[in-house]
Amino acid sequence: MQTIIDETIGIACHLTLNRPQQRNAISLQMVDELLQKLAEAEEDPQVRALVLRGAEHNFCAGGDIADMLNAQQGASDGNSDVFFHLNRRFGELMERFNRTSLIVIAVLEGAVMGGGFGLACSADIAIADRSCRFALPETRLGLPPAQIAPFVVARVGLSQARRLALSGAKVNAQQALEIGLIHELLDNSEALEGALQEHLGAINACAPGALATTKQILLDAARVSDETALGQLLDGAAQQFSRAIQGHEGREGARAFLEKRSPEWQH
Asked: Which family does the similarity line name (predicted)?
């Protein structure tokens, strides 16, 4: 890995965006490396959580300008689809992090801009310290936040997403907490690390299969738009519940409760 640092500790795979001189801007190479490490983490039976953060107290300042310049050269050479593929590849990254069965925790510091903003919105849990500054600056550069917008709407709602995306205004960490962009605001880096460990401890107490199933149900629920679809979702969820309660985790959870001990998945 050249653009990220990866380390697995206990139940968590830690991925650190590591281009500090560019404030951890996301390059195509970084996208490829993040997707590779995500796939490896999903295959590791011990891993339940993925922790995403940036090196040297910045999360991510957005997309990489060098990739934009290379794409411009490609377009000049007659490849009219080069910008489409560049932009869509980043969307694939956010889709994968959004829908992975792992629990994604974004640990946010400093710049959380553009693509970094989108990544933060794709996380299941987003925690930040007071150094954070959030923005969607694309329209000020003559561009739409094309791949980011759906994830922002899902996180903060259409009204706030319109305000942020259509003005490019910066939002501080306290404002981000108030609109639901982040879930927890800590005073400093030390408190941020403490909060991360608390979240990992809470995830460790949950059964891996139940976590994955619950996340899938929640994501599916967000797409329900009518009563017929809701009934179908609830039918499917009931089937998943039935399988779970009759499966190994359900039986182990019940035994552990009755025997007043920790379940076997809690390390």
From this structure: Belongs to the enoyl-CoA hydratase/isomerase family.
